[in-house]
Amino acid sequence: MAKVDYKQSGVDVEEGYRAVNKYKDHAARTVIPGMLTGLGSFNGMFEIPKGIKNPVMVSGTDGVGTKLDIAFKMKKYDTVGIDCVAMSVNDILCSGVQTLFFLDYVACGKLEADVAAELVKGVADGCVETGCALLGGETAEMPDFYDIGKYDLAGFGVGVGDKKQMITGKEIKAGDVLIGLSSTGVHSNGFSLVRKLVTNFDDKFILDGKDTGKTIGEVLLTPTRIYVKPVMEVLAKYRKAVHGMVHVTGGGFYENIPRMYPKAEGSKKQLISVIKRDSWNIPPVFGELIKRGADVEKVYNTFNMGIGFVLAVNAKEADSVIEMFNKNASKYSKPGIPDMVAYKIGRVAYAEGEVNGQKDAVLFED
């Protein structure tokens, strides 16, 4: 009987070693105070920052989803790792907490160290942009389980905050102003629909009849904006004025914004969102998707439509908060990506009747 080793079964251990060695250079860029271990340990250790009286751990986990398919087809792997980090750290941010560390998980059918390293490079880029450590991760080669050339990428982050400083939504009240922070485009949600609408990612991206110099695939691969640093900077000054926060992900406005409101009890009325149409600039990629067949009546229930993060803010402080966001926007500039813009997109109000679904919880007005 012929002897079979691990490599003959489809798992190349040496390629795995090569991948890990490449990861270490990227992870080294993310080292911050509090890290007690680095890549190569069986686990990751991080010291809770001093000075937190009532520490609460806040975690978030997510993946990149079918946006990865576009990266595979375009053989561009270095940005989707940013998406992976963004999806978790922006969720954690909704409680007013800075993510401290992140761990990733890369899975594939056949490992190519150079491709895996590009994926992890993006993760490290996202961690640097967040200000958190890439504390560890896992790479799994599973022949015959994943198609060759396909990778999955997911991860999770953990932050720690003071229990008394958490933003829970309990302070939201009618009259609060809804401030929207601009997205970079589609971010990382709705790509099952996007891939139905766009079949050739090498198509030129035409805007107002002019060639932008980019393909539609390049535009769609624009990484998710990470809101952590600008929002934490605002919270350092206006935390008491910020009553609730939302990361606009899958399900768009209708599914996500209502999640920050407390459920009305007894005879109290339910809080809802009233969104002012045309109060922000919608990135042209959404117009392109509508032109290609996206249902215009349902896009706000699928995509972020140009607003990736929403804050409910005391009306008296809202203009000051918007001014601070926009004044500091250039500090967080990234090449080829428009600066983040803060808009006054609506207000919090009481529902006039019962709220029986998403359409009752988010209303649009001209």
Short description:
With 366 residues, this protein is α+β, with helices and mostly antiparallel strands.
Q: Could you explain the architecture of this structure?
A:
It contains 11 helices and 12 strands. It has 366 residues and is an alpha+beta fold. A 6-stranded mixed beta sheet has the order 8-10-5-11-9-12. A hairpin with a 2-residue loop joins strand 6 and strand 7. Helix 7 crosses helix 10 (315-328).
Keywords:
single chain, 366 residues, alpha+beta
Number of helices: 11
Radius of gyration: 22 Å
Largest sheet: 6 strands, mixed
Look at the helices and sheets and give the structural class.
alpha+beta
Mean pLDDT: 93
Low-confidence stretches at least 5 residues in length (pLDDT < 50)? none
Q: What is the element string, with H for helices and E for strands?
A: HEHHEHEEEHEEHHEHEHEHEHE
Terminal Cα span: 77 Å
Helix fraction by DSSP (H/I, runs of at least 4) = 25-40%
Please report the total strand number as a whole number: 12
Oligomer category: single chain
Q: Strands of the biggest beta sheet: in what spatial order?
A: 8-10-5-11-9-12
Query: What general form does the structure show?
Result: globular
Strand content: 15-25%
Break the fold down into its secondary structure elements and pairings.
Blueprint: H1 13-28, E1 55-63, H2 67-74, H3 80-93, E2 99-108, H4 113-130, E3 133-141, E4 151-162, E5 177-182, H5 191-197, E6 204-207, E7 210-215, H6 216-220, H7 228-238, E8 242-247, H8 252-256, E9 271-276, H9 284-291, E10 307-313, H10 315-328, E11 342-350, H11 358-361, E12 362-365
Parallel strand pairs: 2-3, 9-12
Antiparallel strand pairs: 1-4, 2-4, 5-10, 5-11, 6-7, 8-10, 9-11
